[in-house]
Design brief:
alpha+beta, four-stranded mixed β-sheet, 3 helices, 24% helix
Amino acid sequence: MKRPYDVPGMPDRPPEGPGPDLPSRGAFTRLHLAFGRAAVFAVSLTRPRMTFGVRLHARDGDGRVFLVRHSYVPGWHLPGGGIDVRETAREAAVREAAEEGGLRITAPPALFHVYLRRTRAIDDHIVLFTAEGAEAPDDPRGPSAEILASGFFAPDDLPAETTPATRARIAEICDGISPSDWW
């Protein structure tokens, strides 16, 4: 099955699995590893909540930027979302662009910057990638439960409802402005 993040030129994924053959290890080692995992879990319950997500600044051949309008937050945004278990940030960016807009990314996205967005309850780290030559689907998607609208827009002619953070990220990339560390 071809996955959205199977992009030519992206590195191969390492083999999945628990690593070294754990059943062949002694009972004491397996018990030690189980206690270690339990300790890591217990510590995670007392730490502040933190998330990692991605956004993708995808431009088509005409230099237009792809934006989406979600059903659950106001404004226009760069496509993106959470990173799934056993998924790299780059794979998540490509997957989110495919899920939210049907975009085809023809080359591995480049890491641009990592930002922090602080809210009342969580610290959200956002990994921003850039991709040139993004291709729109042959059959554009209509509105869905998650995405109300999407499209490519010239960086100097964004929709009025584009969020300030999205405008700032586009300016950082398109105008060569030094990136902020804050989303």
